[in-house]
Design goal:
Length: 378
């Protein structure tokens, strides 16, 4: 009987392909939009992810993320270093400036000042050049997204001169970093040099990056720093979460992507429900004939479940493969750099497909169960 159900389903190729399209399109839309949403909000934590060596971030109490911060006095560094359990502590500067290129274009960039001695604060990997290039005067390292944005014509950025706050800056390296939420161009330089590039204010230090002793946990060190200094301290994971929460709470991204996901679900219900109903209606005589030869309603239900399961499995696989191909095709775009598909998202899409098929299958099955065997003779 199950083989007959499959033959009935695939016999009408037009409706069969319509069902596959409905499930595949719904799966693709839900999976793709959720994937972009998750990766986009995680960009709020990119500044933290780009500094993997820091166990604790210390900041002014009003600072919220790496991008939304309030500068501290330089004396905060010594106060943090005096806290028991601090293995090392270095200054970290993050600011925004306007840069003038050789062609005369003006570009807004992010300036990140890393520790002069240890270079803590610089991304772990370099695409071009070496971290030691920062020992040369007036040197900056640009991130790879910045190369794409500032040198769209394909020019080699190495050796290019820029003007920052009437100061000369020479690009001598390209860093492999996770883009920020706005995909802004980022320039890395030594902390002492960054002070010259950023317009002067009384307080300049954005954060203190801290490494912990082996005998103290990051959570315990956070409590000690806050109690002894009065500053705000966050572990690496906590501060990364703060960046994600800030994007969710202060932008319309969750609402916009949520609407798209809901529309994908509705489209799936509409297409699959309509097509499945037409399929059942066109085969009502066949179901009546099966009842006439003694097939019970239980077996009819199994037949419809098999039909829905086959369509759902193939359509779901097509949708997931389509999402993977979409992400791969745009992997060269700086906006999609480091995007990935979390394992939870395909499970959510699978749940949506099951609900779509369950809802539409139940509605369509009602007309089959009400069919009298005599319908075959009408």
């Amino acid at each position: 009987m199950l083989w007959i159900a499959i033959r009935m389903l695939t016999g009408d190729k037009q409706k069969f392909y319509g069902l596959l399209f409905g499930i595949a399109f719904s799966t693709l839309l839900i999976t793709q939009q959720l994937t972009i949403f998750v990766n986009l909000v995680e960009r709020g934590a990119s500044g933290v992810y780009n500094v993997p060596t820091a166990d604790v971030w210390v900041m002014d109490p009003v600072s919220r993320t790496t991008e939304v911060n309030y500068a501290m006095p330089s004396t905060a560094l010594d106060r943090v270093r005096a806290v028991p359990g601090v293995k090392w502590a270095v200054p970290h500067l993050r600011a925004v400036a306007a840069v003038r290129t050789r062609s005369g274009d003006l570009e807004g960039v992010g300036i990140i000042g890393v520790d002069d001695a240890t270079l803590i604060g610089l991304p772990k990997h370099m695409i071009e050049g070496d971290k030691d290039v920062l020992s040369q005067p007036d040197t900056v390292v640009i991130d790879d997204v910045g190369v794409t944005n500032m040198f769209e014509n394909g020019d080699n950025p190495i050796g290019q001169r820029l003007e920052l706050n009437d100061q000369r800056a020479v690009i001598r390296g390209v860093a492999d970093s996770i883009p920020s939420f706005t995909s802004q161009v980022v320039l890395f330089t030594k902390y002492s040099q960054a002070l010259n590039y950023v317009p002067g204010t009384r307080n300049r230090m954005s954060f203190v990056l801290v490494g912990r002793d082996d005998d103290v946990s990051a959570e315990e060190l956070v409590k000690r720093i806050e109690q002894r200094t009065g500053l705000r301290a966050r572990t690496r994971d906590q501060f990364a979460r703060d960046g994600v929460d800030f994007i969710i709470q202060n932008t319309g991204i969750p609402t916009n992507f949520g609407i798209t996901v809901v529309l994908g679900f509705i489209v799936g219900v509409a297409i699959v429900g309509l097509t499945f109903s037409l399929f059942i209606r066109d085969n009502i005589r066949q179901f009546g004939a099966l009842k006439a030869i003694g097939v019970t309603n239980t077996k009819i239900r199994r037949m419809v479940v098999v039909q829905a399961g086959l369509v759902g499995f193939i359509g779901y696989c097509l949708g997931i493969v389509g999402t993977a191909l979409f992400m791969w095709s745009f992997s060269g775009n700086p906006f999609f750099k480091a995007f990935y598909i979390p394992w939870q998202i395909p499970l959510i899409s699978l749940g949506a497909v099951i609900v779509i098929l369950g809802l539409t299958g139940w509605i369509s099955l009602r007309s089959v169960l009400k069919t009298e065997p005599a319908a075959v003779f009408r």
